[in-house]
Write a structure and sequence with these properties.
The complex is a heterodimer of chains A (about 270) and B (about 260). Chain A has 13 helices and no strands. With about 270 residues, chain A is mainly α. Chain B has one domain. The two termini of chain B are about 35 Å apart. Classes of the chains: A mainly alpha (about 270), B mainly alpha (about 260).
Chain lengths: ~270, ~260
Amino acid sequence: MREALKAAGDGCRTYGIVAASSLRSRAAYTWNFTLSLFFQMLMYSADVAALLLMVRTAGAIGGWGTYDILFLSGLVLASSGVYRVFGSELHNFDKYLVHGEFDGVLIRPAHTLLTVAARSIDVEQGGAFLEGVVLMVLAWRHLAPDLGLGVVDALCAALAVACGAVIWFAVVTATAALGFWTTRIDDLQPVLLYGPETAVSYPLSIYPKAVRWIFQTILPVAFGSYVPAAAILRKGPPLSDLGWCAAVAAASFVAALGLWNLGVRRYTSTGS
Amino acid sequence: MLYLALAQASMRKNMAYAWAHMANNVGSALFGVIYIMLWRAAAHGRPLGAFSPRDLESYIAVGQVVLWLTTFLPPYLGIDRHIRTGQIALEFARPVGYMPRVLAAAAGEVAYNAVFRCLPLLAMFTLMGVFPWERVASPGRAAAVAAAFTMAAAMGLLVQYLVGIAGFWTTESRWARRLYFALAMFCGGQLFPLQLMPAGLRDALTWLPFQAMISFPVSVWLGVDTLPAWTSAALWALGLAWISARLTRKAARRLEVQGG
């Protein structure tokens, strides 16, 4: 037990050192950083604006009004923003496999997943998180009086963001791990990552049963988005369902880590 | 002839990854399906503005296909890589103009996308029964669609070229690409048709270049195009070609290469 704790402590320390150096390198280009963050937020605002125009024209979508959808979209943006910051290197993992850069990762003293993730902390991508939180707060201010939302609900919303972040991190890790078999992952990402991320930004009730089943089982991203949002916004499921969300998030991460470790054992390097 | 050879070479290079791109096509179709479901739920069987529920689904399906001709092109058309690696000095030293060479190679990518991205998507949406083939039944409509798609593809290339060439004035152009995507998707009416937008916003967006890349070709296919949309697209295509040529000349004068 003591050994495991020491290994975890060492891993965290290594992560901290590598992550700090990554942050310092980003901070060297303040102007680009600021512009990137701003335009990142503008990009997500454009998506949200199109969605709001749609709800305004239609009245409601799947029984969800403007602010309900704003809250749901904000929740997905905030939680996926976390993986964009801390998992950006996993997101671009195929370069390690195509050029054999993963060889260097194998000889580092920390766990390979931790080492890869720490190599780039993409703070500019934090725009998604910031914007998500802003959208959630905006929606909250309109919905709270009618729904009687209180402190417990606010804590549940924070828990929902955390669960979503863990689930997205698990998905991005699992997608990267598949690269050990497929070498390239950029063509898998639209199906496993971007598509589901877009899909669960809207109420799950608009999709056919089979699609809902996929997002609640094989790729359980609904537990970091629709399920907690529906519970918090009093749309059916009780708040206690957030316990399930936390359990699914933990299970997803363990499963993704297992797939990663399996992939690392299969890694055969590359050469010219 | 040289430019045709460049386009062919670029197309052949992509063909090596044709099967991997098929997986990506599934992702693209998935996005189309998501947006179609979204519009189906929003319309709830009613017409919205001038669009029937079927029109809204068709709008998304044609739009997903158009994106591969106008928007989903190689990032910065590879210009950023030329700048970052110093290769740009050699590129400018060649006896043939930089801009036409880059655009010819990128046109090869567009041709590849037309065959290996658009056709599979067309097949998928046709199988789903959401692709509006009936709207281009007459030769006149087909000719209008061909002209609009060609103009839209040219616009897509020119806008990407400008985003890439912006790298001469910044140390990196990731932010420029983000700005481009935000503007292209919203102002181009990718999810929400311009025709359904509030009048003032719609009129303003009609005169921006982005509508020419998505909304314009899709509207021509659906037969809901307008004279201002055609005028705006034609003026922007000419204007962007002129601006791009000027900026390329400025960039050549600004060129600094370090190393040794």
